[in-house]
Amino acid sequence: MDEIGGRHRAKNAQGEERMARRSSAQGVAAGEEPRAEALARIAALVGAPHALTDPTLMAPFLADERGLYTGRAAMVVRPATTAEVAGVVRICAEAGIAIVPQGGNTSLVGGSVPHEHGREIVLSLSRLNRIRAVDAANDSLVAEAGVTLAEVQAAAAEADRLFPLSMASEGSCQVGGVLSTNAGGTAVLRYGNARELTLGIEVVLADGRVLDLLSGLRKDNTGYDTKQLFIGAEGTLGIITAAVLKLFPRPREVETALVALPRLGAVTELLARLRRASGDAVSAFELIPRIALDFVLRHVPGTSDPLAGAHPWYVLVELSSPRPGTGLREALEQALSGAVEDGLVADATLASSEAQRAGLWRLRDAIPEAQKREGGSIKHDVAVPVARVPEFIETASRAVTAEMAGIRVVAFGHAGDGNIHFNLSQPEGMDRDAYLARWFDFNRIVHDIVAGMGGSVSAEHGIGRLKRGEFARYADAAEIELMRRIKAAFDPKGILNPGKLLPPE
Ligand code: ZN
Q: What residues contact 168, with CB distance under 8 A and at least 6 apart?
């Protein structure tokens, strides 16, 4: 399945050719025999069962989540410890073998899969899957790179704590990937993204040395904060093998509501009022357009509309407090009835059981799955200043509709932090491939509007392989130049996830 159509393929093919030429030059320099010998040493180091070369066994590691890319690899290596990761990297550094680090392989921008030329190895961190320590006094835990986000949440809960990072892929995405993409999700407005939840990391450098930054200190001003460079670097500067993650008191009171808005413009004022009324207890504020709700009701079994009548916009609101009996429900009810009186809210329903709460979240979480059933979707993961979310959605919706009549705008997501998934479903009845061939035309329209509003063309998914061109177009040239110098300093041989994140030169 090619989600983005022929034009993108053609562009990639040129890039791949360049890549292949460069790699074969490396191959000749290193020689084929030393290369084969290096791969044999890697297999001996991690054990033959964990050095995969059988195409069938390698297949799940070579294709990305969205079906945009299917690569090839010389080997899929699955080390079990930091020392083994370091050993593999040392051998690769000597032999000039490029490494694609991989966690749960849930990247939405092709960041975690190898290229098509087949000379890279995939280094899967899945077997580094231990929670090394839980420090309740420091409100932190140390998790290895291959621990899934759901396992981190469970370990925190076991210690009567909360690890607040939450997203649809949490059952399969892993700590190393979450940090390497500085992942966001639904609780960013209250707790911040992955970067803000990280106290320390352990990372294998491009020459195989291990940098231990796992002190977990809450304060440390000794020079540059190097760990921050590895967070969000998408495996291009080093391979994260473990992290110290911040924990919080576990919520004792949680209130969830689906709120219908008469108009999009009400969203900003509603957020401000809920924050004020609850003592800043808003932990989710997710925007849902009517069309997304319609898609979910149409395609996802067991869902139903909890409100009578159709409304143009909805917000899934969650308030939470670690202290029981703080009256969150009353505060929410009062704030909402005041908002109804003032014309900001048309209708609302509050969950009164865990099952109802789960049902409301299902309406939000099922949007991507339901949208898939409506044909091709051209996607944008953008951020604008929170107060300009309505203006962005209205302006961009007008622009894309002017470009193609019948296009269906599905703008949803994290309105509380300004991150909107501005997805465009194809007009009904249009040929899917013909629609997806317009991917970059619509990217240009939407991203130009985002850039004009001081926004970001990649809010929480990263750059990977898919967005390198867009990154180059909108980033400050001086910033790109600094990034190239950082890359050269950290990875002088260019063996760590080449062809990802940084724009083509
Ligand atoms: Zn999201």
A: 365, 368
Among candidate residues 114, 124, 111, the one with its CA nearest the CA of residue 52: 124
Q: Compute the CA torsion angle 318, 321, 324, 327 (nearest 10 deg).
A: -60
Give me the numbers of helices (H) and strands (E) for the chain, helices first please: 18, 19
Q: Is 253 exposed, middle or buried (0-12, 13-18, 19+ CB in 10 A)?
A: middle
Distance between Cα 182 and ligand 1 center (Å): 12
- Helix, strand, coil percent content, the chain, rounded in steps of 5: 40, 20, 40
242 close to 215: Cβ distance less than 8 angstroms? no
Q: In what order do the strands lie in the sheet with 210-213?
A: 131-135, 140-144, 239-246, 198-204, 210-213
How many Cβ atoms are within 10 Å of 44's Cβ, its own excluded?
12
Q: Are 288 and 334 in contact (CB under 8 A)?
A: no
The rounded distance, in Å, linking the Cα atoms of 446 and 454 is 13
Tell me how far the alpha carbon of residue 343 lies from the centroid of ligand 1, in angstroms: 29
List, in sequence order, every beta strand (DSSP E) within 113-229: 121-124, 131-135, 140-144, 161-162, 198-204, 210-213
Here the tokens at position 21 are: 């030429």
Query: Which helix or strand (DSSP H or E) is residue 261 part of?
Result: strand 253-261
Listed as own residue / partner, the contacts of 274-280 with beta carbons closer than 8 Å and 24 or more positions apart are 274/317, 274/319, 274/332, 274/335, 277/331, 277/332, 277/334, 277/335, 278/319, 278/328, 278/331, 278/332, 278/335, 279/326, 279/331
Q: How far is the CA of 181 from the centre of ligand 1 (A)?
A: 13
Task: Compute CA distances 232 → 182, 198, 336, 482, whole Å.
Answer: 5, 12, 38, 15
Instruction: State the DSSP code for 427.
Output: P
Taking the centre of ligand 1 as the mean of its atom positions, its distance from the CA of residue 382, in whole angstroms, is 10
Query: Do 200 and 213 contact (CB within 8 A), yes or no?
Result: yes
Element (H, E) at 420: strand 419-425
Query: Could you tell me where the beta strands, DSSP code E, fall in 113-177?
Result: 121-124, 131-135, 140-144, 161-162
Contacts of 405 (CB under 8 A, 6+ apart): 427
Residues 6+ apart with CB under 8 A from 438: 5, 378, 404
Mean pLDDT by 10 residues, the chain (505 residues): 35 39 44 90 98 97 93 98 98 98 96 97 98 97 98 98 94 97 96 98 98 95 96 98 98 97 97 96 98 98 96 98 94 98 98 97 95 95 97 98 98 97 98 96 98 97 96 95 98 98 91
Q: What pLDDT, on a 0 to 100 scale, did the predictor assign at position 504?
A: 87
d(CA 244, CA 133): 9
What separation in Å is there between the alpha carbon of 172 and the centre of ligand 1?
A: 15
- How many whole angstroms from 79 Cα to the centroid of ligand 1? 30
